[in-house]
Design goal:
Helices cover 46% and strands 13% of the residues. It is of the alpha+beta class.
């Protein structure tokens, strides 16, 4: 879990190499920015040893999510051409991946019920997010609003 109370300043690297400040936000918001943005982030504790005092996205992730380690799970590309077949294929692959995650969590000491509940909650959250993104993508909402989806901003 990201330490939300860590406040950082985020800048985007411009085409000319200069830094353009885009805002002050908490670590969770900074980490949720689109991966396509080339960002530099102020160190949340004000010190990191780098000459300019800036860290990258992975550096922030390491500082604020020290207990998270990459799982190294690869979800293969679909083989089937037909949507119905791809759904069955995706279900089988998801079951395999979730079984691996659950087994690793149980081996690490998590009770099976807790990890199962967490996986269900995560899947429901993803479903809710994907539905919201799809709804906005098909609606007549301005680009500024569409760009903010998933970044926890609220509009009046």
């Amino acid at each position: 879990m990201v330490e939300e109370n860590k406040i950082v300043e985020v800048t985007v690297v411009a085409d000319d190499g200069g830094l353009v400040p885009i805002g002050i936000m908490n670590a969770k918001q900074a980490l949720s920015l689109p991966e396509e943005l080339d960002v530099s982030i102020s160190h949340p504790d004000g010190e990191d040893g780098s000459p300019d005092g800036l860290i990258d996205r992975q550096g922030l992730r390491t500082l604020t999510e020290p207990w998270v380690e990459p799982l190294g799970i690869i979800f293969p590309s679909p083989i089937s051409e037909e949507a119905v077949d791809r759904i069955d294929e995706a279900k089988a692959l998801a079951h395999r991946v979730l079984s691996e995650i659950a087994a690793a969590a149980i081996e690490a000491g998590w009770p099976a019920g807790e990890i199962t509940h967490a996986l269900i909650d995560a899947a429901c959250s993803l479903e809710h997010t994907n539905a919201a993104i799809s709804a906005v993508a098909t609606s007549d909402v301005g680009d500024a609003v569409r760009d903010q989806i998933g970044h926890e901003e609220q509009f009046d």
